[in-house]
Amino acid sequence: MSRITYLLRDAFQNMRRNVLVVAGAILAIFISLALAFSALMLNEIVRVNTLLWQEGEHVVVFLKDIEDGISNADHQALQNQILDWQEVESVRYVDKAEAWEEFQTIFADSPSLLDISDQSIVPASLRIKLSEIERYRDIEFRLDGQPAVRKIVSPGEVIERLSDLNSVLNRLAVGLAVVQGGAAVVLIANTIRLAIYARREEVAVMRLVGASNWFIRIPFLLEGMLEGLVGAGLAVLAVWVGQQALGGIDINIVQLNLPEGFFLRWAVAFMLFGSIAGLVGSALGLRRYLRV
Question: What is the H or E stretch that residue 154 is in?
């Protein structure tokens, strides 16, 4: 136990002697992992929202009414026609009364808008759920020009853009982790090299009195691991603060909360990555400047 205490104390003393260089190494790891973790978190938010949108109703068809010469029977006929299409999983009819209730719920925080509105401005609609969201363009093409159709709205294009954004964020997270992580490893290696150079006489004395190779190496390895662990811990803390701030924002159409366990799982992974990056950097420094 006394030997372990000595090695840890020696590692902390090394860090105090080169506090500015150590702070630079920790800052490099903090920035690299914070950027990578943020990109990963945003990627997960995009993925969750994409899935939510895909599970909902994919095409909304606003219908003409009696003033346009269209009756409820025409609405029913169009609904039955759509149900026969192979791409369609289900069709839900929303009449004007139900649409007005929905309108009041959505704009409950805008009483001025409700005061100047009435049920007549909200049309009946058909809410279509597709078996495959990618087929939304085919449905729009078939509905275009139908006598009972007033307007067609679909989030399909938005979902496609979210999927593209999801792919970009995936590549960005991996790229940031590799590039910035590599830079952090190099900076830690340089920090260890400086520490070895500053203690070269002490290392020479330790060799003369018979200290083993690993006894000399371990304090430097611990120093690099601690730098990586502290930098990763700060990155996780910063991203957690940001995620809590995002989670407190109430946006009805976007889900900003992460799935349960996602943050903790990746926080542990990033802490391990930071520690390993520190060890690798230390090993690189030792390999070149401490041949034992």
Answer: none
Cβ atoms of 52 and 255 closer than 8 Å: yes
- Of 234, 232, 216, 228, the C-alpha closest to 189 is 228
* CATH code of the region 59-154: 3.30.70.3040
The reported pLDDT for the residue numbered 292 is 43
**CB-CB contact of 217 with 290 (8 Å):** yes
Which sequence spans correspond to the domains of the chain?
Answer: 2-53+159-289, 59-154
pTM of this structure:
0.61
H/E element, 209: none
Mutual angle of helices 213-247 and 156-198, in 10-degree steps: 150
Residue 29 near residue 280, CB atoms below 8 Å = no
Cβ atoms of residues 274 and 229 within 8 Å: yes
* Of 108, 41, 98, 56, residue with least CA distance to 75: 98
Q: What is the pLDDT of residue 234?
A: 92
Q: Are the beta carbons of 154 and 58 closer than 8 angstroms?
A: yes
Helix, strand, coil percent values for the chain (each to nearest 5) = 75, 10, 20
Task: Give the separation between CA 216 and CA 282, rounded to whole angstroms.
Answer: 13
Closest CA to 220 of 292, 269, 268: 292
